[in-house]
UniProtKB/TrEMBL annotation:
PANTHER family noted in UniProt: PROTEIN-METHIONINE-SULFOXIDE REDUCTASE (PTHR43032), PROTEIN-METHIONINE-SULFOXIDE REDUCTASE CATALYTIC SUBUNIT MSRP (PTHR43032:SF3)
Protein name per the record: Protein-methionine-sulfoxide reductase catalyticsubunit MsrP
One Gene Ontology term of the molecular function aspect: oxidoreductase activity
Signal sequence extent: none
Originating organism: Acaryochloris thomasi RCC1774
Keywords: Oxidoreductase
Presence of the UniProt keyword ATP-binding in the record: no
Domain Oxidoreductase molybdopterin-binding per the UniProt entry, residue ranges: 97-253
Keyword check for ATP-binding: no
Pfam family membership, one: Oxidored_molyb
Length: 313
């Protein structure tokens, strides 16, 4: 076989897999009975009883629905490094958090490596209650604790040549082998990207906590991205590197299946996923399966058009 044949076959494999990827999880929520909680509830609760991390709520951001119960949010997650199902909280406890460093590099005047505790001290923390919408159409409302991405931008000073930012998640195949199907062929580590203008938007947030406590591992401890106007996959978890670039970076889901997982990925009720409508969302809740959850119409930009609409006009 020529190297092109190998490349082509690999591409087909990846394309097919991308089609399975997040979508496979959505399909299985439709086809089998899934509880949002599995296993021992007290064992699950122990995973989110992390240290207290309280901050004053920023009242500029409000939502017109109630917060999702903490145990539902902590018991239904996407974290493909640890497996391909939603009940990933137990497997995610293997994530090693000791001495976590976040490297800021690339086209910036002040590149540096932060210890995560240093980040928490340096940038004033606030609480923000945001809507959250996964591309699979489930939605929740959670109170994050963290700091706006623009605070970091101000400190590291991107150069004029920097147009995009790539965010990289923790990856160690010995700790998180991935979902198990086709091992070795996914484009790890998980990466995501934003334009500098998006990162500078007031809504773009780094979370270090949730529900008044440090992030549980399954939510992407110790630092994850929160972009409430975009589909959830844009918000990479457990960030170890932030790179300023002059070109749009390739990202995990976008390189697997660009027509399902666009680079921009703003929530839009009028643009269906190739295999399902995005006109409605299902509020993460209790019930025998996720299709029993309360449905609501999807809002353009997930309800945040007034803050971000001008970025795209
Ligand atoms: N590193 C990493 N980040 C990730 C994911 C992932 O698999 N790996 N999944 C994404 C997806 S698809 C969603 S919907 C959210 C889920 O966040 P939650 O589990 O805290 O609700 O995390 C996003 N960030
Ligand atoms: Mo998602």
């Amino acid at each position: 076989m020529t190297s092109e044949t190998v490349f082509y076959q690999r591409r087909r494999l990846l394309k097919g897999l991308g089609g399975m990827g997040i979508g496979m999880a959505a399909f299985s929520t439709a086809s089998c009975v899934r509880q949002s909680k599995t296993g021992d509830p007290s064992e699950l609760a122990a995973t989110f009883k992390t240290s207290r991390l309280e901050a004053e709520r920023n009242t500029r951001y409000t939502v017109n629905r109630s917060a999702t119960p903490q145990d539902l949010a902590a018991g239904y997650n996407n974290f493909y490094e640890f497996g391909g199902n939603k009940q990933i909280w137990k497997a995610a406890q293997k994530l090693p958090l000791n001495d976590w460093q976040v490297e800021v590099t690339g086209q910036v005047n002040n590149p540096r490596t932060y210890n995560v505790d240093d980040l928490k001290q340096r940038f004033p923390l606030e609480e923000r209650i945001y809507r959250f919408r996964c591309v699979e159409a489930w939605a929740m409302v959670v109170p994050w604790v963290g700091f706006p991405m623009r605070a970091l931008l101000k400190e590291v000073e991107p150069k004029a040549t920097a147009k995009f930012v790539r965010f990289t998640s923790f990856y160690d195949p010995a700790v998180c082998p991935g979902p198990g199907f086709l091992p070795g062929s996914l484009p790890w580590p998980y990466t995501e990207g934003l334009s500098i203008a998006e990162m500078a938007n007031e809504l773009a947030f780094f979370a270090v906590g949730i529900y008044g406590r440090e992030l549980p591992k399954q939510h992407g401890a110790p630092l994850r991205m929160v972009l409430p106007w975009k589909y959830g996959f844009k918000g990479a978890k457990s960030i170890v590197k932030i790179e300023f670039l002059d070109q749009q970076p390739a990202t995990f889901w976008n390189s697997l299946s660009p027509n399902e997982y666009g680079f921009t990925a703003n929530v839009d009720p009028k643009v269906p996923h190739p295999r399902w409508s995005q006109s409605q969302e299902r509020l993460l809740g209790t019930g025998s399966n996720s299709y029993a959850w309360e449905k609501q119409p999807t809002l353009p930009y997930n309800g945040y058009e007034e803050y971000v609409g001008k970025l795209y006009s």
